[in-house]
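Need the bound structure for magnesium ion, inputs here:
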Amino acid sequence: LLMMKPKVVFVLGGPGAGKGTQCVKIVQKYGYTHLSAGDLLRSEQSKEGTQYGELIGSYIKEGKIVPVEITIKLIKKAMDEKMAQDAAKNTFLIDGFPRNTDNLNGWNKQMNDHADVKFVLFFDCSNEVCIQRCLERGKDSGRTDDNVQSLLKRIQTYMQSTKPIIDQYEKEGKVRRVDGAKSVDEVFVDVQKIFDSEN
Ligand code: UP5
Ligand code: MG
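Answer from helper R.:
Posting the output first, comments after.
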């Protein structure tokens, strides 16, 4: 059985930059499948009898990046399940990954032969706006990391570990940058320009 190699867009940006919000809109208009690495980890964490539950929970609360073996296993499983349902569903938004060198190396080692990364969609947003949005959401999100203490750690991890990955992709000409500080609809106007010219 010959399967089309899946096409992947990585979606990156600071905590609260709007990755998830915009991915929902991209799915509606362009029919991609949205896989949020953070959502996959949170759902794995809440499963009964998983060996990784505690580890994932503590990493997320501390704003630290979970070892790539765990994350890739979840991403790959979700991709395989989707394509098994419908082989034509082979375009994916991978949201919130890769976040550090460990993530990038793990992807290159395990996934380079199995998926094509088309580009990196980067939501550029100041730390202040990011923190404010997550604190606001924290009033009812139930997320263990939407509090000031965790947010400062998430921002630090983003600056130290994730930004350099975006910079590296930028040098390869793979980054499509969007100003993430504008309103949701304004941001999506810019996002559509990118997807319309890529497709
Ligand atoms: N909002 C969105 N867009 C707005 C706009 N333009 N104007 C005004 N408000 C806007 O948005 C956040 C909030 O802002 C919402 O209330 C929204 O309504 C509003 P959202 O779209 O959810 O932003 P997003 O960028 O998705 O923020 P999120 O908090 O999900 O980003 P993170 O990257 O911090 O979280 P993620 O879930 O990806 O990861 C969480 C943790 O999981 C990480 O810290 C890490 O510990 C772990 N993780 C890994 O270890 N490995 C991975 O590969 C992935 C995650
Ligand atoms: Mg998100």
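Comments: Residues 19-20, 36, 38, 95-96 surround magnesium ion (ligand 2) (CB under 6 Å). The longest strand covers residues 116-124.
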